[in-house]
Amino acid sequence: MRILGNKTLEKDIDRLAVLLNFWKRDSDTVIHTQANVVIDGKVYTVDTTDYSSLSTITGFSAYTTKQIYYMTLGKLVFVKFNLVGTSNTTTLNFTLPFTASSVTFNVGEVRVEDNGVFQTGPGMWSLNGSSTTLSVWLTWQGSGGTAWTASGTKAAQGSFMYWAA
Q: Do 37 and 75 have their domain in common?
C-alpha cells in the first residue's frame, strides 16, 4: 500500500482506517491524497463469495434457485440473495457469514412471491444486532403481518448491507 507524498504504510491499515473510514485494503491499493481522494485498486476485504451451500436456510423443501453472495469492505458486509423454491413452512430465514454488530438493527424491502404469486407490495427483511440469522417477511409488517403459505412457490430476492461485529 502506498500513499503519495513519501509516506508509506506497510500493513498498517488501522491508522489509515481512521483517516479514510475504511478498514482494510489489498496490498496493491494506491491512495492519492490531495484535495480529493483517489483509490486506485481493489478496496474490498473479501471478494464476492458464494455462501449458498454454507447458509442454513429454512422455509423450503426444494429449490429452483438458491443464491446467497456476499463481499466485505472491512466490517461492512454486502449481501445479495435470490431464493426460489417449494415452500414448506410459514417462515423464511437464512444464516449470514458474519455476526451483526450488537449496536445495529437492520430492516429493508425485499421482492417476495407467495404460493406462486408475486406480491404487489414489498416484503421485509430484518436482522437483529448480534445475530447471524436474517428473517424475510411476506409483508412490511414483519411478524405482525401475513404469514407465508406453507406450500406452492416461495421466492425472495434482495440485497442489503450490514455492519459485522
A: no
